[in-house]
Amino acid sequence: MKVAVKSKSMIMLLPLLAACSGGDGQSTTAIPPVAAASAAELDTAVSAQSVAQPTTANQSVTDFDVWAQRLMSDRISPIVAAAQDLSHSWVGADGKVANAVVRVPRTAGKPTISVSPPAAGGDATPVFQAALSQLKKAGGGILKVAPGEYHFQSANTAQPTSGHILVQNMSDVDIQAADTVFLFEQRVDGIGIRDSRRVRISGAQMRDAGVLSGTGRMRSINGAMTLVLDEPLPAGTTINWIRPMNEDSHTWPQTQTRAIIDPATAQPVRINDRTFSSPTFKPFKDGQYVGVKFTYYGTRMVYVRDSFTGTNEDIVLDGLRIGSTGGMGIVAKTRGRGLAIQNSSIAADPGRPYSTNYDGVHVVASAGDILIRNNAFAHTGDDQINLRSIIHRVTVLGTDRATLTNDARLIRVGDEVAFFNKEGEYLGRRFVASAPPIGHTDTITFGFKPGEPFTEAAFARVLTMTPRRFAIVSNRLEDSIGRGMLVQIPNGLIQNNTIRRLPRTAIRLLTSFDPWLEGAGAINVRITGNSIESGGAELGFSYATGIIMAQAEVASARIAGNMHNGPLLIDGNRFEAPRAPCVVVYSTKGFAEQGNVCGGS
């Protein structure tokens, strides 16, 4: 079996893909036919990439098919869109129609409350808290935010750690904030959304008030590499991440050189307020221009998160502008259905290297439909869009009991749990029958209703909080240090996006049992009509990587030898000035490509 790789001229083959026809690669779903590539050219390309020769996959086709069909059964949203709702439909990689729907607030007959900027730059937090309290009592409504600048100088008082603005246990709330600027001045999240339904926030330009990233230059002083910042290190911040940057262009070179100083690592020695030394600086070159993060996974601008008893549903973020934050831009960690991000932008404030010090959009879990369209992302300090799903480690305790780790507090009685062995092969599913009271640990023992055996289980995925449908459409992604998209969920469309000047993979479909414990498989995913300029790939791996790639790993940095992805269709994409193979696909059953143009006509 071989893997398809789109080179600068045509398809190449690499090992560990189930081919589009024949043997284990025989597709069980409706995939458009693809013309075969020249075997002679393909084998030459394999040799040039120094890739090991094909091996025989050891996974039962039936096991993968059962898992894939379970996920593909949910390609249609259970919600029927009303006239005002957001929706998107497409023909999936399986040749069947898929759709996603996110509902908007129902505010007819509900009140409109207006707020204005407090005088003399006063604290806006209590103003918003009082207005939202009124809307909560009224069962929802519109919060009309007058144009101007709002300084949020304190956290909300209901749950201070949950943000400056907290939308909690509310329904049908529409926060309209066109022509406003929100400055968040405390080290808490900007906007927290908890256990709420049909919430829309639109129009606001948002940023942290503090300076949380900067630039500098590496200098060899007395034989030791030092960092010299362009501006003094802001009070109350630390040096956490240093990476080479292209001076004056706000772009990033493809390099593995970097220094990550996490909280467990000693801070660099301060020579003065701009100059620092550390052994971690040794890999840099004298005179190298760098971007520097002053936080290690700081706060989020918008954080959509369930409590451990409620859920969020149908959250719409429309026309937001995120200029800088010390953590991620928009994060969702919810069991509920429905998340839309549209007409928004994430781009660095003037004079700052980063817009978000880490991911731009990051979905940990979301059990329903995800729409990301008509947005612009730039200058993120890691991946621009990351759609994850959670994998839990499993310790089997008996016939009907097991302990699960990794956000296991989100799991509830009645949840459907799919079990997998140490090779990531599907074993079967059970339903949670009992769970202890929610505590402060993410390692929890559950009782399961009798059913399919799971004695060999090493991993689990919870269907109740695995994203089910997604559409990433008509976005612009450019000039960031990470990937354009890291997508690890099924039943999706990636279409008509423009991706430019990224040093790493533009679109990476990943399942990682070890080490990352994330990914449900690129199952029924279509990538079509995208334009990728000056695309690169991953560095430091022993296998070929590409501008668009699909892979799975059950051990760190090793390609899985069995099937985890597919059906997968990559069609009609254009690659301009590629710096790496255009398409690399591993661990995939039912792969097709057609009509892609890689570096030429």
UniProtKB/TrEMBL annotation:
Keyword Signal: yes
Signal peptide span: 1-18
InterPro entries, A to Z: Pectin_lyas_fold, Pectin_lyase_fold/virulence
Domain of life: Bacteria
Keywords, comma-separated and alphabetical: Signal
Keyword Signal part of the UniProt annotation: yes
PROSITE patterns in UniProt: PROKAR_LIPOPROTEIN
Protein name, entry field: Right handed beta helix domain-containing protein
Annotated organism of origin: Novosphingobium kalidii
